[in-house]
Amino acid sequence: MKAAKAQAAPICTDKGRVAVAGMLGISQGSVSPSAAVGNNGEPECHFTADVGNRRIRVVVNVDTSPQPYARLERTIVEDGQQFGLVRGFAAPVTVPKLGLDAAWVPDADQVITTDGNALITATVAWGGARQAQRRALATAAARAYLGKLNRKAAQQTEV
After folding, report:
1. Contact 24/49 with Cβ under 8 angstroms?
2. Over the chain, what HEC string results?
3. Beta bridge partners of 93
4. 153 within a domain of the structure (yes/no)
5. Residue 2 in contact with residue 123, Cβ under 8 Å?
6. Domain holding 121: CATH number?
7. In a domain, 47, yes or no
8. Using an 8 Å Cβ cutoff, are 126 and 110 in contact?
9. Given this model, what pLDDT does residue 83 score?
10. Looking at the domain assignment, is residue 159 inside a domain?
11. What's the average model confidence in pLDDT over 55-82?
12. pLDDT above 90 covers what percent of the chain?
């Protein structure tokens, strides 16, 4: 069933490619997309670009499994939990005005968000870039994959 879902619509969209290129200040043709299946069995697009002497990679995973909003909220809470006196990792940071809710997970260099229909994760690998640059690129890539907001999804709870 997952393979059929991945083939239903192209995962590497022009909108995603344009978003990545725009944030990097390069032409759309300079961004190479490659479709794949993530370790969660869901489709993802790997966008790569060379800017100067740096290779930049953005992976956008689109998980359409049930209850994406509930899973997003659980992920944010769990990623922020601390079980000791000294924090050994950076807590998630809210990303305003992105989907129904969104967070930047600094230690994973990723933004997670949902439109209520899919859980979208955009992960950036950009050596030498400041965290603000990586966060902005991940946010732009994730935004390109958001659809119409399904506000009723926030009312769903996990079973």
Report:
1. yes
2. CHHHHHHHCCCCCHHHHHHHHHHHCCCHHHCEEEEEECCCCCEEEEEEEEECCEEEEEEEEEECCCCHHHHHHHHHHHHHCCCCCCCCCCCCEECCCCCCEEEEEHHHCEEEEECCCCEEEEEEECCCCCHHHHHHHHHHHHHHHCCCCCHHHHHCCCC
3. 104
4. no
5. no
6. 3.40.1000
7. yes
8. no
9. 65
10. no
11. 92
12. 78
- The parent domain of residue 62 ranges over 2-80+89-148
pLDDT (tens digit per residue) in 25-41 = 999 999 999 999 999 99
Question: Tell me: the pLDDT tens digits for 44-59?
Answer: 999 999 998 999 999 9
User: pTM for the complete prediction?
Assistant: 0.89
Q: Would you say residue 156 lies in a domain?
A: no
Which residue shows structure tokens 């690129």?
A: 137
The total domain count for the chain is: 1
Phi then psi dihedrals of residue 126, to 5 deg: -145, 85
Q: Give yes or no for a contact between 140 and 23, defined as CB atoms under 8 angstroms apart.
A: yes
Instruction: Identify the sign of the CA torsion 66, 69, 73, 79.
Output: positive
